[in-house]
Amino acid sequence: MSRFVLKRLLLSVPVLLGVSVVVFALVHLAPGGPVRVMLGPLSNEELVRQIRLEMGLNRPLYVQYGMWVFDALQGDFGVSWTVQQGTPVTDIIVERIPLTLELSILSMITAVVIAIPAGIISAVRKDKPADHAARIAALSGISIPDFWLGIILIMIFAVQFSFPWATGGWTPPWVDPVANLQQLFLPVITLGTAYSALIARMMRSEMLDTLSQDYVKTARAMGISAREIVLKDASKNALIPVVTVIGVGLGQLMNGAILTETVFNLPGIGKLLILAIDRRDYRIIQALILFIASVFVFANLAVDVLYAYLDPRIRHDGN
Fold first, then answer.
1. Which pLDDT value is given to residue 312?
2. What's the rounded Cα separation, in Å, for the pair 117 and 250?
3. How far apart are CA 303 and CA 305, in angstroms?
4. Transmembrane region positions (predicted)?
5. Contact indicator for 154, 264 with CB cutoff of 8 Å
């Protein structure tokens, strides 16, 4: 198992290096360079030259990239120029990670709690009213855009019913757990709905495939109750492929938080990225894109390890 994990870790290194090259190049190869992008159309040549000299942008690109990677490995992405002028980028990001992480985890828990039972019931009750209802709900959840659902929920709970906790903002759970859960209720529903639909469809498909296996037919012939077959045997085997979707989904939920945090005015990673783009703070943009890419890479790594643990054939094939 350790050899399998080490191999996956080594395969993650070139992926992150590739992402760092792309992130660095997108900003530095933009028309006019990062300084003109940051200053906008009102920049003058003297100011551009001065800032380029201060930031070391007059050096060759490969030297700048090497210095940037070296600093990034130490958690140093420089200071913000426009979002929070003079504040270290790392401090700005670390301050906002707890909200996005909590939102993603709660959304995933909500999605799993809804989707797994729905997928099992839909498969067991195939082509019956419960199955049709679950499939319609899943299709609706996938089709409805997150931002649209968020706006509708705000109109209902904040405008129509005037609930104060539905108007946005975030209270850390260690300050007031009740206010924290109230403020995240609508964002969690918004973000978790679409992903619960995807997991439910996947679970239904895997359950239908598992229930058609010979060992399930044998168990039925032996007189084992349908409830025991579904809950103890079929559902466990069907969950193995679904684990992949759930694990990768945590990274995707952090990506989906960009729009959700903007709609609900939550000061997380997603809203910070939108703000940095709007104010042309390229240092924050670089750091956030690298951070989000790292989350995806390590989420995939965790899924590979968990999948190999659940199904030993995977790690033997991987070795």
1. 62
2. 19
3. 5
4. 105-124, 136-161, 181-200, 287-310
5. yes
Token pair belonging to 87:
């504040």
d(CA 8, CA 255): 23
| Beta-bridge mates of residue 79 | 88
**Residue ranges of the chain with per-residue pLDDT less than 50:** none
DSSP characters for 38-88? Answer: HHGGG--HHHHHHHHHHHTTTS-HHHHHHHHHHHHHTT---B-SSSSTTSB
- pTM of the predicted model as reported, rounded to 2 decimal places: 0.81
The structure tokens listed for 67 are 């210095």
DSSP state of 157: I
Three-state DSSP string of 269-304:
HHHHHHHHHHCCCHHHHHHHHHHHHHHHHHHHHHHH
CA distance 220 to 223: 5
Alpha carbon of 83 to those of 56, 86, 187, 228: distances in Å?
21, 9, 24, 57
Angle between helix 235-263 and 89-124 (nearest 10): 140
Tokens representing 302 are 């965790």
b vs e for 13-48, b when ≥16 Cβ sit within 10 Å of the residue's Cβ?
Answer: eeeeeebbeebbeebbeeeebbbbbbbeeeeeeeeb
Interacting residues of 200 by C-beta distance below 8 A, sequence separation 6+: 114, 115, 116, 118, 119, 122, 134, 137, 138, 141
CA dihedral sign of residues 60, 62, 64, 66:
negative
